[in-house]
Amino acid sequence: MDAATFILLRFEQGTVMFNEMMRAEIWLQDHLDSQQGIEDLASRLGYSTSQVRRRFKQCFGLSPSAYRDSLRLEKAARLLAFTPFSIQSIATRCGYRNHSAFSRAFQRYHNQTPRQYRQALRLKLHHNPFCQGHGGDPPHHEIRWAPARQALVTRLYRKERGHPLGVLRKWTQYAKGVESLPDRLRQGQTIALLHNIPLPSDMERIDVGPLVDRNEAPGIAIPASFRLLNLPAQQQASVELGSLEEIPDVVQYLVCECLPEQGLHASGDAVQVEWNEKGVLVRLPVQQA
């Protein structure tokens, strides 16, 4: 995989403008259920709204408002597929004030009503090797309570459709600012948060970087393209795998077969992945049904 596949349009990751617009993109993702507008984002960045709109579109190909709409509707798709939440509840969680506005926006984006999408996608998710009985022995999973942790992560983006997971083992070749990290972090345990797996997305987003000790975090000089991410304590379905390429099918199997049998469902939060020379550990955040 060429490094260029993880560079957004005309702006190389690590430039001042890209870092600022990456922070803007992350702010939009973190405020999907909020009614805060682009004016709030511009104030946070110290720019005028017109500057933010222009620069964001140069980097991401969409205005901030249009980009946030796409994030909201992709999040809605995940919640429809993975959770038993009502459509009204999903609309609220994704920042829509009324059911009708949400349904119209969803149908324009996905070419199906939310109800039709939920039914069709759940049927499609069952068509994976483990659910169909020809993928070998189903993976063993454990439900665990994971403590709160911190990670120092950068965000990788990918516009092309395809399989983004192979890049994780060589993530330091694609991320700028890694050379500024202390050796103990570069050589320590890495974690990746996969925001789109297993559903398709117009923009693949992966947060990746080393886990850090809470006592150590305040003394770290954080490169401009990185941020300190708090991972909350939560219940997770954990699976040990042999390769990164197994992740999409295994996540589908957990969502469709394993979790419902235990009265659980995926929360819709990003899938967490850790790996080393011995194998891959996948953590899927879950909730009680």
From TrEMBL:
Keywords annotated in UniProt: DNA-binding, Transcription, Transcription regulation
Top-rank taxon, per record: Bacteria
| Record domain HTH araC/xylS-type: where | 22-120
Cross-referenced InterPro entries? Homeodomain-like_sf, HTH_AraC, HTH_AraC-typ_CS, Tscrpt_reg_AraC-type_HTH
* Classification via SMART domains: HTH_ARAC
Q: Which PROSITE patterns match?
A: HTH_ARAC_FAMILY_1, HTH_ARAC_FAMILY_2
Q: Does the keyword Transcription regulation apply?
A: yes
Among PANTHER family, the record links this protein to: ARAC-FAMILY TRANSCRIPTIONAL REGULATOR, HTH-TYPE TRANSCRIPTIONAL REGULATOR EXSA
The identity of this protein, by name, is: Helix-turn-helix transcriptional regulator
**What organism does the UniProt record list as the source?**
Billgrantia sulfidoxydans
